[in-house]
Amino acid sequence: MTFVAPCAPDTTAGRTGARSQAALTAVRTAPTILDGIRRADALVTAAREEPEAALSVLVQEIRRGEDQLAVLAAVHALAAVPGARPDTLLTALLDDARPWVREHTVWSLVGRPPVVRAVPVLAHLVAGGGFPGMLAQRTLQAWASAAGDPVSDALDHALAGTSEPGARARLTETVGLVPGSGATGLLRALAGDPAEDHAVRGAALEALVERHHEDPEGVPGLVDLAAECARSGGALAPVARLARADLAAGPAASPPAGTGRTVLQAFLHAEIDRDLTFSGRGDNGGIATLLAQLGDALAAHRTQHGTGVVRVVTVSRGSHDEARAALPRLAGPGHVFGVVPFQGAPVPLADAWPRRVAAERGLRRALWAAGPVDVVHLRMADVGSLAAAAVAAEQGIPRVLTMAPDPHALVAAREAAGTLTRAGFGAADAVEHLWFRVRLLADLAAGAEHLVLFPRPDLARDARVLLGLDPDAPGRCTVVPEGIDLGSVDRAAAQAGAGTGRELEELDAVLTGLPAERRGLPLLVTVGRLHRVKGTADLVEAWAGDERLRARCNLLVVGGNLAHPSVDEREQLARIDAAVPRAQAAARGLLLAGHRPHGTVAVWLAAVRRGRPGLAAARGAYVCASVKEEFGVALVEALAGGLPVVAPAAGGPATFVQEGVTGVLVDTRDPAALSRGAARALDLAAGPGAEDAAAAAYATVRERFSIEGMAQALTAVYGRVAAPVTDRSPTP
């Protein structure tokens, strides 16, 4: 794909299959799993250019099955071979006993001309949902323009064969991707049927509204249908209310020329508001904080300097009523917040792939209401970026991608540790979709006009080894450190110094759970989502298992929805409860505070340094136990607030933590190293050089990691990317 140059055709080898065999051998002998995934591109190219000779080589490898990485490479190469025989083989692989082979076969078919005999199988997978259902839906969508009737018939047949509401809703959503009056008629019937489940009717209605935007004359009577759905009440009513608002609204007017650029940034796994009310809950982590503060800084930078970015549209997830309320605000000036709605409860980031179509529709709605957007900034290889990239491409909006090595660093680390091998790669991939995410990031990079990289101790090496990217390519990449709002750090320090305020009263209420004998101890604090990648349970286990550490400090955990935990939060809480039973936690020095608004957390971090009279001693420390961290908003905020920090030795923290002075870098996967690091950080906090170290840390953050500096650097990037766009008026 993106970073592997195809080999030149070799017609002699093509007659014997030698080139395909050589490419397959290169995959098998690749020094790392990541290299093997990249080398699969050459195998695809060889199969395409020597189709007859490649066929037997690929089939033999798929049947052998010993090297699961090579098997998957062969599946993708088989999909590049034209003709009826590969169609038959690929259709058979949809029923393979190995789930990871089935999954990659569905994915590989997306770039192939329609295989009619495979359509019913794909429709069945759509009904089943999950990641395979999303892949099947993408493939059917790609085939629908050339094979609309077979696709529509298969979906109609699948609908007739199931009564389960979730399956019917997924099939209905997919019907909405099929062009033609037949699909429109089926959608109208589903939306208007009072006997249908509300999720099914809602999916049909949302598809009809999108068709109306494409062809206002193609869906007559839609306003009345939406009104009828709104009167139905229940879960359908908010969907219908948003549909009515969407139908009533026209596109936002274009701003006058020369008024500055508009940037859209999306993170669809969080609920982001200006006050960061939900910080630390579910997937509302550091990136949510970053986007809220960055949007404000970008807009403020434009106000002060008169050029650059005039508007920032930050889009996150929410309810249909929240999306409806946000629509009128999206055309406003400055930093505005939009909402992409999803039916059903929030799901973890890793399980959100089936929401691709809803994400695309929500983003189109936001763009319709916001007016012309000059740049879309993508982050992460997730379903939100997959959707945003597709919508930006269809509307001709340039893209900027912040390219972090995720999941690349995770794959490399697990391979080095021996927990991820070529022989077992397929099984792991079926759960974590590692290959898809690696290739998605490559596709996002290929479609982006510019790439933004994080600082790393050895950036050039990591970019080449992990990402297969040359960071020195002229005009292609810019290194932009992320930043924090130092104003909030300063305000928090002032409030903690004054010793009064609602935030401190809330902290005191948490600390009063400590028994008298533990109230003279400093606090070890960690802030963030309750997720295994953040290592919260690892930290609790390390603290609880180290008697000397436990005797010298209490542990304050800030983050997570304790009342209604998500799946990821429940997993972490179960491990925490096993280490320190909840009923005994405060008595033993463990304080679970749950998620708090960002402003509250900032004051608490300042109080950890200063202490709380009669409740907690001064000179606490901060621990980031993340498996991986490129930046860490809370980590840098703690550093700026004068707390010695414990941080992962791998990734970005090594670029800003001064070992043994402002913090300690450790292997966070090692409990003993984690507890030793925490003890060392407490030593630094109590040492004679603590104040000088705090001042140095603040200076480092101010000079290199302020949100204003980040906004200034990105404004220049956006200017280069959007410069060719001179006419933003709607196409007549």
Automatic annotation (TrEMBL):
Pfam families, alphabetized: Glyco_trans_1_4
A GO molecular function held by the record: glycosyltransferase activity
Domain of life of the source: Bacteria
Full protein name: D-inositol 3-phosphate glycosyltransferase
Organism taxonomic ancestry: Bacteria, Bacillati, Actinomycetota, Actinomycetes, Micrococcales
